[in-house]
Design brief:
With 420 residues, the chain is an alpha/beta fold. Helices cover 51% and strands 11% of the residues. Helix 10 links the parallel strand 6 and strand 7. It is globular and about 55 Å long.
Protein backbone atom coordinates (compact mmCIF):
# COMPACT_ATOMS: atom_id res chain seq x y z
CA UNK A 1 0.00 0.00 0.00
CA UNK A 2 1.27 3.46 -0.84
CA UNK A 3 2.27 5.48 2.22
CA UNK A 4 -0.39 7.97 1.19
CA UNK A 5 -3.19 5.40 0.83
CA UNK A 6 -4.97 4.71 4.11
CA UNK A 7 -7.46 1.92 4.85
CA UNK A 8 -10.18 4.58 4.85
CA UNK A 9 -9.15 5.73 1.38
CA UNK A 10 -9.11 2.13 0.19
CA UNK A 11 -12.62 1.72 1.57
CA UNK A 12 -13.76 4.63 -0.60
CA UNK A 13 -12.05 3.14 -3.65
CA UNK A 14 -13.60 -0.28 -3.07
CA UNK A 15 -17.09 1.14 -2.57
CA UNK A 16 -16.73 3.13 -5.76
CA UNK A 17 -15.63 -0.05 -7.55
CA UNK A 18 -18.65 -1.97 -6.21
CA UNK A 19 -21.34 0.66 -6.74
CA UNK A 20 -19.90 3.05 -9.31
CA UNK A 21 -19.23 2.90 -13.04
CA UNK A 22 -16.17 1.94 -15.08
CA UNK A 23 -15.80 -1.11 -12.85
CA UNK A 24 -13.08 -2.89 -14.86
CA UNK A 25 -10.70 0.06 -14.70
CA UNK A 26 -11.24 0.47 -10.95
CA UNK A 27 -10.66 -3.21 -10.34
CA UNK A 28 -7.42 -3.03 -12.33
CA UNK A 29 -6.22 -0.03 -10.29
CA UNK A 30 -6.91 -1.73 -6.94
CA UNK A 31 -5.26 -4.95 -8.06
CA UNK A 32 -2.14 -3.09 -9.19
CA UNK A 33 -1.97 -1.42 -5.78
CA UNK A 34 -2.29 -4.80 -4.06
CA UNK A 35 0.36 -6.47 -6.24
CA UNK A 36 2.74 -3.58 -5.56
CA UNK A 37 2.04 -4.06 -1.85
CA UNK A 38 3.19 -7.69 -1.93
CA UNK A 39 -0.10 -9.60 -2.33
CA UNK A 40 -0.69 -12.14 -5.08
CA UNK A 41 -3.45 -14.57 -6.05
CA UNK A 42 -2.29 -18.17 -5.75
CA UNK A 43 -3.18 -21.83 -6.10
CA UNK A 44 -2.96 -23.90 -2.92
CA UNK A 45 -2.01 -26.99 -4.96
CA UNK A 46 1.62 -27.22 -3.77
CA UNK A 47 0.51 -27.24 -0.15
CA UNK A 48 -2.11 -29.91 -0.77
CA UNK A 49 0.41 -32.06 -2.58
CA UNK A 50 2.72 -31.70 0.41
CA UNK A 51 -0.08 -32.43 2.90
CA UNK A 52 -0.70 -35.70 1.12
CA UNK A 53 2.97 -36.73 1.28
CA UNK A 54 4.87 -34.89 3.99
CA UNK A 55 3.03 -32.31 6.07
CA UNK A 56 -0.10 -32.73 8.15
CA UNK A 57 -1.66 -32.04 11.50
CA UNK A 58 -3.68 -29.04 10.42
CA UNK A 59 -6.89 -28.34 8.50
CA UNK A 60 -7.24 -25.45 6.06
CA UNK A 61 -10.22 -23.14 6.73
CA UNK A 62 -12.18 -22.01 3.67
CA UNK A 63 -14.66 -19.23 4.41
CA UNK A 64 -17.59 -18.17 2.22
CA UNK A 65 -17.87 -14.38 2.04
CA UNK A 66 -21.40 -13.34 1.17
CA UNK A 67 -21.38 -9.61 1.77
CA UNK A 68 -19.56 -6.47 2.97
CA UNK A 69 -16.64 -8.28 1.39
CA UNK A 70 -13.96 -5.66 2.00
CA UNK A 71 -14.65 -5.40 5.75
CA UNK A 72 -15.04 -9.17 6.07
CA UNK A 73 -11.71 -9.75 4.36
CA UNK A 74 -9.99 -7.19 6.57
CA UNK A 75 -11.14 -9.04 9.70
CA UNK A 76 -9.85 -12.36 8.40
CA UNK A 77 -6.53 -10.89 7.30
CA UNK A 78 -6.08 -9.20 10.70
CA UNK A 79 -6.52 -12.47 12.54
CA UNK A 80 -4.25 -14.31 10.08
CA UNK A 81 -1.49 -11.75 10.52
CA UNK A 82 -1.70 -11.84 14.33
CA UNK A 83 -1.61 -15.63 14.38
CA UNK A 84 0.93 -16.08 11.57
CA UNK A 85 -1.51 -18.22 9.58
CA UNK A 86 -0.45 -19.40 6.13
CA UNK A 87 -3.36 -21.31 4.55
CA UNK A 88 -6.75 -19.60 4.71
CA UNK A 89 -9.15 -19.49 1.78
CA UNK A 90 -11.77 -16.97 0.71
CA UNK A 91 -14.50 -18.65 -1.29
CA UNK A 92 -17.88 -18.10 -2.87
CA UNK A 93 -20.20 -20.58 -4.56
CA UNK A 94 -21.92 -20.33 -7.92
CA UNK A 95 -25.26 -19.88 -6.18
CA UNK A 96 -23.84 -17.28 -3.77
CA UNK A 97 -22.51 -15.12 -6.60
CA UNK A 98 -26.05 -14.96 -7.92
CA UNK A 99 -28.02 -14.13 -4.77
CA UNK A 100 -25.39 -11.79 -3.30
CA UNK A 101 -25.08 -9.91 -6.60
CA UNK A 102 -21.30 -10.17 -6.75
CA UNK A 103 -19.17 -10.92 -9.80
CA UNK A 104 -15.93 -12.89 -9.52
CA UNK A 105 -14.00 -9.74 -10.40
CA UNK A 106 -15.69 -7.63 -7.75
CA UNK A 107 -15.27 -10.32 -5.11
CA UNK A 108 -11.59 -10.89 -5.86
CA UNK A 109 -10.78 -7.18 -5.90
CA UNK A 110 -12.56 -6.48 -2.61
CA UNK A 111 -10.72 -9.40 -0.96
CA UNK A 112 -7.24 -8.43 -2.09
CA UNK A 113 -7.91 -4.78 -1.24
CA UNK A 114 -8.86 -5.93 2.27
CA UNK A 115 -5.48 -7.59 2.60
CA UNK A 116 -3.76 -4.46 1.37
CA UNK A 117 -5.60 -2.36 3.94
CA UNK A 118 -4.27 -4.57 6.75
CA UNK A 119 -0.68 -4.71 5.48
CA UNK A 120 -0.80 -8.39 4.58
CA UNK A 121 1.89 -9.72 2.24
CA UNK A 122 1.81 -13.11 0.60
CA UNK A 123 -0.51 -15.49 -1.26
CA UNK A 124 -4.26 -14.86 -1.40
CA UNK A 125 -6.29 -18.02 -2.01
CA UNK A 126 -9.62 -17.54 -3.77
CA UNK A 127 -11.86 -20.53 -4.34
CA UNK A 128 -14.86 -21.04 -6.57
CA UNK A 129 -16.85 -23.20 -4.15
CA UNK A 130 -19.57 -25.55 -5.37
CA UNK A 131 -19.06 -24.86 -9.06
CA UNK A 132 -22.17 -26.96 -9.26
CA UNK A 133 -24.00 -28.75 -12.04
CA UNK A 134 -27.71 -27.99 -11.73
CA UNK A 135 -29.24 -31.42 -12.37
CA UNK A 136 -32.59 -30.01 -13.53
CA UNK A 137 -30.94 -27.65 -16.00
CA UNK A 138 -28.55 -30.36 -17.18
CA UNK A 139 -31.36 -32.79 -17.90
CA UNK A 140 -33.23 -30.10 -19.84
CA UNK A 141 -30.22 -28.89 -21.85
CA UNK A 142 -26.84 -30.51 -21.05
CA UNK A 143 -24.78 -28.38 -23.42
CA UNK A 144 -26.24 -25.12 -22.16
CA UNK A 145 -25.64 -26.01 -18.51
CA UNK A 146 -22.05 -27.09 -19.09
CA UNK A 147 -21.35 -23.97 -21.15
CA UNK A 148 -22.66 -21.80 -18.31
CA UNK A 149 -20.34 -23.53 -15.82
CA UNK A 150 -17.35 -23.27 -18.14
CA UNK A 151 -18.03 -19.56 -18.67
CA UNK A 152 -18.13 -19.06 -14.89
CA UNK A 153 -14.87 -20.99 -14.49
CA UNK A 154 -13.17 -18.92 -17.17
CA UNK A 155 -14.39 -15.65 -15.65
CA UNK A 156 -13.35 -16.77 -12.16
CA UNK A 157 -9.85 -17.79 -13.23
CA UNK A 158 -9.39 -14.43 -14.97
CA UNK A 159 -10.36 -12.75 -11.68
CA UNK A 160 -7.76 -14.70 -9.66
CA UNK A 161 -9.66 -17.79 -8.49
CA UNK A 162 -6.91 -20.39 -8.76
CA UNK A 163 -8.79 -22.95 -6.65
CA UNK A 164 -11.97 -24.48 -8.04
CA UNK A 165 -14.31 -27.03 -6.46
CA UNK A 166 -16.32 -28.89 -9.07
CA UNK A 167 -19.60 -30.21 -7.72
CA UNK A 168 -21.31 -32.71 -9.99
CA UNK A 169 -22.53 -34.72 -7.00
CA UNK A 170 -26.02 -33.50 -7.92
CA UNK A 171 -25.82 -35.99 -10.78
CA UNK A 172 -25.30 -39.03 -8.55
CA UNK A 173 -28.18 -41.45 -9.14
CA UNK A 174 -28.75 -43.57 -6.03
CA UNK A 175 -31.63 -45.39 -7.73
CA UNK A 176 -29.12 -47.35 -9.80
CA UNK A 177 -28.02 -50.59 -8.11
CA UNK A 178 -24.36 -50.45 -9.17
CA UNK A 179 -22.00 -47.94 -7.52
CA UNK A 180 -20.12 -47.28 -10.75
CA UNK A 181 -23.39 -46.42 -12.48
CA UNK A 182 -24.43 -44.21 -9.56
CA UNK A 183 -21.23 -42.16 -9.84
CA UNK A 184 -20.83 -42.32 -13.63
CA UNK A 185 -22.24 -38.89 -14.51
CA UNK A 186 -20.52 -37.31 -11.51
CA UNK A 187 -17.09 -38.65 -12.49
CA UNK A 188 -17.55 -37.99 -16.21
CA UNK A 189 -18.67 -34.37 -15.82
CA UNK A 190 -15.98 -33.64 -13.22
CA UNK A 191 -13.38 -34.96 -15.66
CA UNK A 192 -14.80 -32.81 -18.45
CA UNK A 193 -14.59 -29.69 -16.28
CA UNK A 194 -11.10 -30.62 -15.06
CA UNK A 195 -9.92 -30.82 -18.66
CA UNK A 196 -11.48 -27.45 -19.35
CA UNK A 197 -9.74 -25.88 -16.33
CA UNK A 198 -6.38 -27.23 -17.47
CA UNK A 199 -6.98 -25.76 -20.93
CA UNK A 200 -7.54 -22.22 -19.62
CA UNK A 201 -5.37 -22.00 -16.49
CA UNK A 202 -2.67 -19.29 -16.67
CA UNK A 203 0.91 -20.22 -17.54
CA UNK A 204 2.80 -21.28 -14.43
CA UNK A 205 -0.38 -21.80 -12.37
CA UNK A 206 -1.47 -25.32 -11.45
CA UNK A 207 -5.03 -24.72 -10.32
CA UNK A 208 -6.19 -26.77 -7.35
CA UNK A 209 -9.29 -28.69 -8.39
CA UNK A 210 -11.68 -30.42 -6.00
CA UNK A 211 -14.39 -33.00 -6.57
CA UNK A 212 -17.41 -34.12 -4.58
CA UNK A 213 -18.96 -37.57 -4.12
CA UNK A 214 -21.95 -36.93 -1.86
CA UNK A 215 -24.38 -34.03 -2.09
CA UNK A 216 -24.32 -32.22 1.25
CA UNK A 217 -27.45 -32.89 3.28
CA UNK A 218 -28.01 -36.34 1.84
CA UNK A 219 -26.78 -39.82 2.81
CA UNK A 220 -23.25 -40.19 4.16
CA UNK A 221 -20.40 -41.01 1.79
CA UNK A 222 -18.56 -44.32 1.88
CA UNK A 223 -15.17 -45.68 0.91
CA UNK A 224 -16.89 -47.60 -1.87
CA UNK A 225 -18.46 -44.37 -3.18
CA UNK A 226 -15.04 -42.75 -3.44
CA UNK A 227 -13.48 -45.69 -5.24
CA UNK A 228 -16.37 -45.84 -7.72
CA UNK A 229 -16.18 -42.09 -8.34
CA UNK A 230 -12.43 -42.14 -8.91
CA UNK A 231 -12.72 -45.05 -11.32
CA UNK A 232 -15.23 -43.18 -13.46
CA UNK A 233 -13.30 -39.91 -13.10
CA UNK A 234 -9.91 -41.30 -14.06
CA UNK A 235 -11.36 -43.17 -17.04
CA UNK A 236 -12.28 -39.88 -18.69
CA UNK A 237 -9.14 -37.95 -17.70
CA UNK A 238 -6.21 -37.89 -20.18
CA UNK A 239 -3.10 -39.75 -19.07
CA UNK A 240 -0.65 -37.50 -17.26
CA UNK A 241 -3.14 -34.72 -16.59
CA UNK A 242 -3.22 -33.46 -13.00
CA UNK A 243 -6.52 -34.46 -11.41
CA UNK A 244 -8.34 -33.41 -8.27
CA UNK A 245 -6.36 -32.61 -5.13
CA UNK A 246 -9.21 -33.16 -2.66
CA UNK A 247 -12.64 -34.72 -2.32
CA UNK A 248 -15.68 -33.23 -0.60
CA UNK A 249 -17.73 -35.81 1.27
CA UNK A 250 -20.98 -36.01 3.20
CA UNK A 251 -20.63 -37.01 6.84
CA UNK A 252 -23.87 -35.77 8.38
CA UNK A 253 -23.92 -31.98 8.01
CA UNK A 254 -26.34 -29.69 6.18
CA UNK A 255 -25.42 -26.34 4.63
CA UNK A 256 -26.43 -23.62 7.08
CA UNK A 257 -27.53 -26.13 9.68
CA UNK A 258 -31.16 -26.91 10.47
CA UNK A 259 -32.89 -24.21 12.48
CA UNK A 260 -35.59 -25.24 14.95
CA UNK A 261 -38.83 -23.33 15.66
CA UNK A 262 -37.23 -21.72 18.72
CA UNK A 263 -34.40 -20.35 16.59
CA UNK A 264 -31.73 -22.79 17.82
CA UNK A 265 -29.67 -25.01 15.51
CA UNK A 266 -30.42 -28.72 15.54
CA UNK A 267 -27.57 -30.93 16.74
CA UNK A 268 -25.98 -33.23 14.18
CA UNK A 269 -24.12 -36.48 14.53
CA UNK A 270 -20.96 -35.99 12.50
CA UNK A 271 -19.30 -39.19 11.31
CA UNK A 272 -15.64 -38.46 12.02
CA UNK A 273 -14.64 -42.08 11.44
CA UNK A 274 -15.89 -41.93 7.85
CA UNK A 275 -14.18 -38.57 7.37
CA UNK A 276 -10.90 -40.05 8.60
CA UNK A 277 -11.18 -43.14 6.39
CA UNK A 278 -11.98 -41.10 3.28
CA UNK A 279 -9.11 -38.67 3.92
CA UNK A 280 -6.68 -41.56 4.31
CA UNK A 281 -7.99 -43.32 1.21
CA UNK A 282 -7.72 -40.11 -0.80
CA UNK A 283 -4.09 -39.69 0.23
CA UNK A 284 -2.94 -43.31 0.05
CA UNK A 285 -4.69 -44.53 -3.10
CA UNK A 286 -5.31 -41.41 -5.15
CA UNK A 287 -2.53 -38.98 -4.22
CA UNK A 288 -4.83 -36.29 -2.87
CA UNK A 289 -4.31 -34.07 0.14
CA UNK A 290 -7.39 -35.56 1.78
CA UNK A 291 -11.10 -35.03 2.32
CA UNK A 292 -13.10 -31.81 2.71
CA UNK A 293 -15.85 -31.15 5.25
CA UNK A 294 -18.66 -28.81 4.18
CA UNK A 295 -21.36 -27.20 6.30
CA UNK A 296 -19.22 -27.00 9.44
CA UNK A 297 -19.62 -23.46 10.78
CA UNK A 298 -22.75 -24.23 12.84
CA UNK A 299 -21.27 -27.31 14.51
CA UNK A 300 -20.53 -27.29 18.27
CA UNK A 301 -17.24 -25.61 19.14
CA UNK A 302 -15.80 -28.66 20.87
CA UNK A 303 -15.72 -30.64 17.60
CA UNK A 304 -13.34 -28.45 15.63
CA UNK A 305 -10.05 -29.70 17.05
CA UNK A 306 -11.06 -33.17 15.80
CA UNK A 307 -10.75 -32.14 12.15
CA UNK A 308 -6.93 -31.96 12.11
CA UNK A 309 -6.71 -35.02 14.35
CA UNK A 310 -8.76 -37.01 11.82
CA UNK A 311 -6.68 -35.85 8.85
CA UNK A 312 -9.32 -33.56 7.35
CA UNK A 313 -7.60 -31.42 4.73
CA UNK A 314 -10.06 -28.55 4.41
CA UNK A 315 -13.18 -27.39 6.23
CA UNK A 316 -15.78 -24.97 4.82
CA UNK A 317 -17.28 -22.28 7.05
CA UNK A 318 -20.12 -20.01 5.98
CA UNK A 319 -23.44 -19.63 7.76
CA UNK A 320 -21.97 -19.30 11.24
CA UNK A 321 -20.33 -16.03 10.20
CA UNK A 322 -23.55 -14.89 8.54
CA UNK A 323 -25.34 -15.57 11.83
CA UNK A 324 -22.77 -13.52 13.75
CA UNK A 325 -23.32 -10.64 11.34
CA UNK A 326 -27.12 -10.48 11.37
CA UNK A 327 -27.52 -11.53 15.02
CA UNK A 328 -24.91 -9.10 16.31
CA UNK A 329 -26.25 -6.79 19.05
CA UNK A 330 -24.69 -3.98 17.02
CA UNK A 331 -26.60 -4.75 13.80
CA UNK A 332 -29.10 -1.90 13.20
CA UNK A 333 -32.55 -3.09 14.29
CA UNK A 334 -34.37 -0.89 11.79
CA UNK A 335 -32.40 -2.40 8.92
CA UNK A 336 -33.01 -5.93 10.19
CA UNK A 337 -36.76 -5.23 10.36
CA UNK A 338 -36.63 -3.85 6.81
CA UNK A 339 -34.77 -6.96 5.63
CA UNK A 340 -37.30 -9.32 7.23
CA UNK A 341 -40.22 -7.42 5.70
CA UNK A 342 -38.50 -7.53 2.34
CA UNK A 343 -37.94 -11.28 2.60
CA UNK A 344 -41.58 -11.87 3.55
CA UNK A 345 -42.78 -9.77 0.62
CA UNK A 346 -40.44 -11.16 -2.04
CA UNK A 347 -40.22 -14.87 -1.16
CA UNK A 348 -43.60 -15.97 0.25
CA UNK A 349 -43.68 -19.03 -1.99
CA UNK A 350 -40.48 -20.26 -0.34
CA UNK A 351 -42.11 -20.64 3.05
CA UNK A 352 -42.49 -24.30 4.01
CA UNK A 353 -45.77 -25.57 5.47
CA UNK A 354 -45.88 -24.94 9.21
CA UNK A 355 -42.58 -23.07 9.19
CA UNK A 356 -42.12 -20.50 11.95
CA UNK A 357 -41.05 -16.96 11.07
CA UNK A 358 -37.66 -17.45 12.68
CA UNK A 359 -37.02 -20.51 10.49
CA UNK A 360 -38.22 -18.78 7.32
CA UNK A 361 -36.11 -15.67 7.89
CA UNK A 362 -33.07 -17.74 8.89
CA UNK A 363 -33.17 -19.74 5.64
CA UNK A 364 -33.70 -16.73 3.43
CA UNK A 365 -31.74 -13.88 4.96
CA UNK A 366 -28.67 -14.80 2.92
CA UNK A 367 -30.57 -13.30 -0.02
CA UNK A 368 -30.54 -9.90 1.67
CA UNK A 369 -26.83 -9.59 0.91
CA UNK A 370 -27.92 -8.95 -2.66
CA UNK A 371 -31.41 -7.49 -2.20
CA UNK A 372 -30.15 -4.97 0.38
CA UNK A 373 -26.54 -4.80 -0.75
CA UNK A 374 -26.21 -0.99 -0.68
CA UNK A 375 -28.02 -0.65 2.66
CA UNK A 376 -25.77 -3.27 4.27
CA UNK A 377 -22.59 -1.71 2.88
CA UNK A 378 -23.83 1.66 4.17
CA UNK A 379 -24.06 0.56 7.80
CA UNK A 380 -22.01 3.22 9.63
CA UNK A 381 -18.35 2.22 9.84
CA UNK A 382 -18.16 2.38 13.67
CA UNK A 383 -20.95 -0.22 13.82
CA UNK A 384 -19.30 -2.42 11.20
CA UNK A 385 -16.04 -2.19 13.11
CA UNK A 386 -17.72 -3.53 16.27
CA UNK A 387 -19.41 -6.38 14.38
CA UNK A 388 -16.21 -7.40 12.62
CA UNK A 389 -14.14 -7.18 15.78
CA UNK A 390 -16.26 -10.06 17.09
CA UNK A 391 -15.96 -11.90 13.79
CA UNK A 392 -12.18 -11.42 13.89
CA UNK A 393 -12.11 -13.16 17.28
CA UNK A 394 -14.09 -16.02 15.77
CA UNK A 395 -11.51 -16.38 13.03
CA UNK A 396 -8.85 -16.67 15.71
CA UNK A 397 -10.87 -19.42 17.39
CA UNK A 398 -11.02 -21.43 14.16
CA UNK A 399 -7.35 -20.84 13.33
CA UNK A 400 -6.34 -22.21 16.72
CA UNK A 401 -8.74 -25.17 16.66
CA UNK A 402 -7.73 -26.14 13.11
CA UNK A 403 -4.05 -25.89 14.09
CA UNK A 404 -2.99 -23.44 11.35
CA UNK A 405 -1.42 -20.93 13.75
CA UNK A 406 2.27 -20.52 12.91
CA UNK A 407 2.05 -21.98 9.38
CA UNK A 408 2.87 -18.74 7.59
CA UNK A 409 6.50 -19.57 6.71
CA UNK A 410 5.61 -23.04 5.40
CA UNK A 411 3.00 -21.69 3.02
CA UNK A 412 5.16 -18.86 1.71
CA UNK A 413 7.96 -21.35 1.14
CA UNK A 414 5.72 -23.74 -0.81
CA UNK A 415 3.74 -21.09 -2.68
CA UNK A 416 5.90 -18.22 -3.95
CA UNK A 417 4.53 -15.69 -6.43
CA UNK A 418 4.50 -16.90 -10.04
CA UNK A 419 6.49 -14.75 -12.42
CA UNK A 420 4.58 -13.98 -15.59
Amino acid sequence: MSPTTTPQQLDVLVRDMVFGTDTAAKQAKLREMAYAGGLYFASIQNLYDAMGKKYGGFTVPAVNVRGVTFDFARAMFRSAIKNKVGPFVFEIARSELAYTKQTPGEFATAIIAGGLAEGYKGPVFLQCDHCQVNSKNYKANPEQEMTAIKNLIKESIAAGFYNIDIDASTMVDLDKPDLLDQQEANGRLTAELTKFIRSVEPKGINISVGGEIGEIGHSNSTVEDLRAYMQTYRKDLPAGMKGISKISVQTGTTHGGVVLPDGSIAKVQLDFDTLEKLSKLGRDEFGMGGAVQHGASTLPDDLFDLFPKKGTMEVHLATGFQNMFFDSPYFPKDLLDKINKGIAAKYPSDRKPGEADVQFFYRNRKRSYGDFKKEIWDIPQPILDKIFADIEERFTFFFKKLNVVGTEKLVKKLIPPVKS
